[in-house]
Structures are given as C-alpha cells and as structure tokens.
Amino acid sequence: MLSDKIEGHTEWRKEIDRRLDQLLRWLEAHELSTAEAQAQLMRLQQQNRSDKLMVAFVAEFSRGKSELINAIFFAGYGKRIMPARAGRTTMCPTELGYDGTDRACLRLLPIHTRLEAKPLLEWRLTPEEWTQVDLDVHDPDQLIESLHKVADTIQVTVDEARALGFWSDGAKDNPMQAADGSVEVPKWRHALINFDHPLLRQGLVILDTPGLNAIGAEPELTMSLIPQAQTVVFILGADTGVTASDLDIWREYLAGEGGDDASRFVVLNKIDTLWDDTLSSDSQVDEQIEAQRRQSAQILGVREDRVMTVSAKKGLQAKVSGDADMLARSRLPELEQVLGERIVHQRQAILQARMAAGMRAIERQQEQAFAMQRQELDDQVAELHGLMGKTEAAIDHQRKRIAGEQEGFDMSVGRAHALRAVHRKILQEIFDLLGSNQLLKDMGGLRSALQESGFIKLGVRKAYATTFEQLKARVMEADAKAHDMHGLFQNMFKQLNAEFAFTLQADPPPRMDDYLRQLAEIETGHAHYLGMGNLLKLSQPEFVDRLLRALVSRLRIVFEKAMNDIEQWSRSVASQIDTQLRERRRSFKRRMKTLERAESASSDLDGRIQEIQDALAANHAAEAELRRMIEELATFPVPAA
Predict the structure, then answer these.
(1) What φ, ψ does residue 434 adopt, rounded to 5°?
(2) Burial class of residue 117, CB neighbours in 10 A (0-12, 13-18, 19+)
(3) Angstrom distance (rounded) from CA 561 to CA 554
(4) CB distance 101 to 275 below 8 Å
(5) Is the domain of 160 the same as that of 111?
(6) Which pLDDT value is given to residue 602?
C-alpha cells in the first residue's frame, strides 16, 4: 500500500539522518571538522529532512480526480474530505501538505492577485495577503465545509474576466454568461492546505489541479508547479476514453514537459461504469476494460503498463464500509501499490545520488587532511631523530631554520590571498551572468515581441528561439569562467604542493550539461503557448504578462541552481587552502615546542618520538573508521521498487 511505502521511506530517511549526525559528531570529536565539511553535511541533512514527495493529479473536469484523492488518502475519515461532486469542483490549484510548525489551516490567495506583476513564489512570502481558515482535523464535517471553499466562485464582468485570464474574445471555451452579462470565475488563485495527516506528516505533498480552462489561464501552474512534482497522475474516464480535451491536456502540458516516462502515470477511472452484472460476465467486463486501457495507451503514446485502471468511487465506498471484495474489484489496492513503489523508489534514488556525491566530496577533503597530517608527523619524527645528541647550538640553528620556513610560508599565504581576490572576482562575474538582472535583459526581446499590438505576432517564435540561444550562451559562458577559475586553482595548488608538500587538489567544476538540458526542455515544453491555438490568448496583454512571469520564474530557478552549484564547488576547493594553512601553522608551533623539550632533556626526545608514532597509528585508524562511515552513507541501499 502507498501508506506503507511512504512510512518505509520516512524510516529510511531517519536512518540516513542518524548516520549523518553520527559522522558530524565523529569529525568534531577527532578535530577533523572543517567549515566546508560541516556545511556539506548540514546541507545533506537539510535536504534529507525537508524532502517532499509531490504527487500532482491532473485531469479534465468530471474525471473523478478529487474522488480518487479521497479514496487514496482520506478514506479513513469515512467521508469525502475533498470536494467531489458532478461538474467542476477544483477551481484553483490546491496543495495539501503538512508543516509541523504551523497550525492546521486553509490559506486562499484571492484571484485578483493575478492582476499584479508578482509570481506565485513571491505571494507565498506574503501570508497577510492570503485568506486563512482554521481547520479542525478531528471534526470531519468542519473539515469538509472549510475545504469546500476551494471551489468558491465569483461573478465578474467580461472585462474583469478578460483581465484575469478567463475570457478570450472569439474563443469557444469562454465561461457562460449569466442573464446580467456577468461570468463565473474562481474566487481563489491558489490554495494551501496544512493539516496533520499520517501521509502528509511523512513528507507527501498532493497537488490537485483544476481542469483545462483554468490550467490554460494560469501558465505558472504548468511551468512551475507541475514540473516540481516527482509524479504526475493523469486521470481519464473509462466511460469516455481519451477525449479531444484530454488529449490536449496530455500533449500540451504533460507529454512535453521533458519528465522521465516513469514520472507520468495514466489512470483510467470509473471502470465501474463498464460493470454489467446482468448482461455481461466478469471476463467480458475485464476484456472491455483491458481494451479501453490498450486504446488509451495507444492514443497517448505510452507503454501499456503506464496505464492503470480503477474505480475511485467504489474503492472509497469499499474502504469506508470495509467491503474487501468490492475493494479488490475496484482495483484501488493495485494502483496504490504501483504508485507507492514507483514514487518512493524514484525519490530514494535521487536522495541516494545526492548523498553519494556529498560523501565522495567529504572523502576527498579528508583524505587530503589525513595525508598532510601524516607528512607532518613523519617530518617531525625525522627532525627529532636528527636532534639526538645535538648541542645547544645545533638546536638553536634548527630553531632559526624553522623560523625561516615560517617566514617563507607567510609570504606564500599572501599569494593565496591574492588568489582569493581573483577567485571572488570571477565568481561575481558568474553571478552577474546568471543573475536576475541579466535574465530579465535576455528576456527583453521576447517580451517586446509578445507585447506588440495585433492579433498575429509574426516575430514571436524567432524571438523565443533567440532568447533561449542567449540563455544557453550565458550558461556556457559561466561554465567557461568556472573552468578559468579551476585553472587558477590548479596552478596555485601546484606551487603550494611543491613548496610545502601540501596535498591540495582542484576538482573540476560542476558540469552545466544538466542545466542546458533543462533549458532545452523548457524551450520545447512551452513552445505550444506560441502556437496557433493560443492566438486569442496571446492577443491579451494580461495573459502575456502571466506567461512571461511564469517563464521567468522557472528560468530563475534553473539559473539559481547553476549558481549555487558553482559557488559550492568553488568554496569547497578554496576551503582546502584554509585547512592546510591552518594545519601547517599548528605544525610550526608543535616543532618549536619539540625543540624546547629537546633543550631541557634529551631523554624527552624518545618520549616525544613515541608520542608521534602513536599519533601516526591513530591517524591510520581514524582514516579507516572515517572511510567506513562514508562508504556506508555513500552506498546506503535504496530498497527495491
């Protein structure tokens, strides 16, 4: 069952968190914790603890989407928690999740916020603009009454509907006008539901999307929200099959999103409409359902095993009444099993890959630290052996030699600081390339083309292609500068390693291929907005503004991630200098103390040599223990799907 899989995922994450905490404490106890290692481990912990599993449910209206959500997640209440009735019930995108730091509540963003040039991400940061309704999770009736507010509508004039994006002059799918000429539109732009449910508590987030008209009116939903989901469940009606509007949604908003095939599921709901207990046998009904499944897969262009069949209505009824036979016939347990296995396995694989990369980075850092410590200890042993039987004058000579080494070392520190200045300069250039100001500048041509007056905007597609060429060029230029920075690190590290027997190593910068791929996916996935089917909408300034804001919002996420990757890499490489400089300064102090002991009594030299040899043995033992802990985390197994 889905609940079992998610619970197992939670326990899996808890074990990873425990081991990360154990590793952090171990590094601190052995005085091996560097600022970069701490930051790396804390990032991994934060990613692991805040991990969310988002499942988006997408469908044309009257496909039983809300009923399916009720059947899978909320049958334990014994009632329909999410609004589910004939006709259109989900009027605005609705996110269901759990934040333990906040009260159980429903937050609603008024529809008029579409008139302001702010993306949804910014509205999330202004809670005072949302209407809040407190929820009583122990009172199903109060919960139902409150959550039904997401389906609220308001009557507005045609001009207001046009400004909000729900009316296009000449379009066939405009809302019906009332007797007074007004039209009905959603009252709310977005809804956030926070309440304590066992599945939501474990990091599950449900995105309930509205139907075709509302999706088309809010580009941010398809450009930002749906792509964030680890899994998208597309729901069809077994009684209708794949309709023209279903196919429009699939082709325009889902199939072209660039997601892995494994992230898209098709659910053929309402198979109970095909049940015929009087005229057809069970096998005949099954054959009919299977034929509808094959046909749906063929029309959508997906593998047959990506299409599942279910009766959400009968599954919900069976769960509430405890009817095991009806539950089995509804095929709901089969759907839950597949969703649980695929969703959780996908997420665990992503987290494990992040963990492995983070552990290998820490391993490289610590290998350098251990190697340098061993070199310093070996040098000290050789130095102490050389002092045996030496005169006070010889010891004083040795002291002057160490002081001279330290002076030369301090001069090299100045070169390292100069490198830091150049490093910061290049890093700032990369930030300028990938920052918001440059992004808005690159979008200027497309913005101008879209804002031209007239019904047909001939230059839009060319401007769109040019914009993405510029954006890809920015990423490639940032990549080139990162490699320039890498070259500087390599040259400086080579000098320092030669002069002071350091073990500095400059790992190559992060590859930008993934971000170029994401840009290509965004370009391909959203080109349909510029097609002939959207001419009416593109003639509306309000729609164009929302389209541009949504596009900028998603592009900004890609660029910010690219910047963060480069920044973290550069800090990781640069932090090696601080670590080894600090260790060398400690070495100078230890050597001077050794000379002081040698002056007092030659017998102390044997004891000091033994201490250093014990330290060498402890160094090897500590490195072996650290490698064991890192290897366990880097290869922490992902349960089989």
Answers:
(1) -105, 5
(2) exposed
(3) 11
(4) no
(5) no
(6) 53
Percent of the chain whose predicted confidence (pLDDT) is above 90? 24
Q: How far apart are CA 80 and CA 121, in angstroms?
A: 30
Residue 611 lies in a domain: yes
Inside any domain, residue 323:
yes
Helices 2-29 and 332-387: angle between axes, nearest 10 degrees: 10
Whole-number Å distance between alpha carbons of 211 and 620: 63
As beta bridge partners, residue 205 has 54
Instruction: Tell me the per-residue pLDDT of 66-98, one tens digit each, with 9 for 90 and over.
Output: 889 889 888 888 888 877 655 555 578 899 998
Same domain, 371 and 228: no
Q: How far apart are CA 532 and CA 524, in angstroms?
A: 16
Does 323 share its domain with 193? yes
How far is the C-alpha of 593 from the C-alpha of 535, rounded, in Å?
81
Residue 396 belongs to some domain of the structure: no
Are 95 and 31 in a shared domain? Answer: no
Q: Looking at the structure, do residues 235 and 88 belong to the same domain, yes or no?
A: yes
Distances (CA, A) of 475 to 399, 439, 480, 605: 53, 11, 9, 59
Rounded CA gap, 310 and 290, in Å?
12
Q: Which residues contact 517 (CB under 8 A, 6 or more apart)?
A: none
Give how many domains the chain has, as a whole number: 4
Rounded Cα–Cα distance for residues 440 and 635 (Å): 42
- Per residue in 351-371, pLDDT tens? 888 888 888 888 877 887 787
Q: For 549-592, how does the pLDDT look when each residue is reduced to its tens digit (9 = 90+)? A: 888 888 998 999 999 989 988 888 887 777 777 777 777 777 77
Contacts of 602 (CB under 8 A, 6+ apart): 388, 389
CA end-to-end distance (rounded Å), the chain:
13
pLDDT over threshold 60, residue 29: yes
Question: C-alpha dihedral over 258, 264, 270, 272, to 10 degrees?
Answer: 150
| Domain assignment of residue 589, yes or no | no
Domain interval for residue 35: 9-51+351-389+602-633
Q: What are phi and psi of 292, to 5 degrees?
A: -65, -35
Bridge-partner residues for 194, per DSSP? 97, 105
The average confidence (pLDDT) of the chain is 82
DSSP one-letter string for 247-299: HHHIIIIIGGG---GGGEEEEEE-GGGG--TTTS-HHHHHHHHHHHHHHHHHH
Question: How confident is the model at residue 133, as a pLDDT?
Answer: 94
Q: What is the DSSP string of 121-135?
A: HHHTT-GGGSEEEE-
- Tokens (6 digits) for 503: 């073990």
pLDDT at site 85: 59
Buried (b) or exposed (e) across 256-271, using 16+ Cβ within 10 A?
A: bbebeeebbbbbbbbb
Q: Are 45 and 146 found together in one domain?
A: no
Residue 212 sits in the same domain as residue 76: yes
Determine phi and psi for 179, rounding to 5 degrees. Answer: -60, -35
DSSP string over 569-611: HHHHHHHHHHHHHHHHHHHHHHHHHHHHHHHH-THHHHHHHHH
* 66 and 127 assigned to the same domain: yes
Helix, strand, coil share of the chain (percent; to 5): 70, 10, 25
Q: How far apart are CA 181 and CA 176, in angstroms?
A: 9
**603-609 long-range contacts, Cβ below 8 Å, gap at least 24?**
605/384, 605/387, 605/388, 608/384, 609/381, 609/384, 609/385
